[in-house]
What we know:
By secondary structure, the chain is of the alpha+beta class. It contains nine helices and eleven strands. Helices cover about 40% and strands about 20% of the residues.
Amino acid sequence: MHEHASARGAVETMIRSRDLEGLLRHAETIHGHRCPYLALGIKAGQYAMTYLDQENTGMEEIVAIVECNNCFTDGIQVVTGCTFGNNALIFRDLGKTAVTVALRGNGRGLRLVVRPQYREEMLARYPAAGPLFQKVVVQRNAPPEEEHHLDHIWPAIAYKELERPLEDSLLVKEVSVKLPPYARIFPSVVCSQCGESVMEPRVRLVQGQPTCLTCAGAEYAELTGQGVGCGRS
Ligand SMILES: [Zn+2]
Ligand SMILES: [Zn+2]
């Protein structure tokens, strides 16, 4: 079998050959479209992975700390291979388009943050895009033909932005970070009310009976488009 027959291997190969277009195309599979901030996440991820020179097989070899949940973050997840599911993605709700990618072993890595002028400079390069984006995405009141137009120009802009030098868009700094312990595997407990299986640290005792947070009417942490907040069912 070929050394890089796995789908992740294909991503690792694109990282090493600096195939940014291939990575952007691949990222569309989870992000749903190609846009300039997805392209930025691709660039940041590719740069950090090349710097660290460590393949990621999803066993926490590498950890990514993201500071916002936007398009950029999906580019980071695809390229670094650090996701919610493999416990290698840490979300800090700081509202910055930034990422720190570090080696699990020693915490050595890079922090990349989008330059504050980037958005304005990028939109100035494509004068038609700014007002269209405002109407279609921000105000959500554009007619279908304008939505269709954005569908066409947004990927084109994303590809153009890929070709620009990294330092135009991102500030890069070497860092050494303190990482939390490896993910633990917790035992499961069955909720006495709904009968569903629950990770033990999320179980509350209600009248002495193990109860999930939903049945207990308790608050839980929730990540939405507004950031991390409190939910209650
Ligand atoms: Zn996007
Ligand atoms: Zn329950």
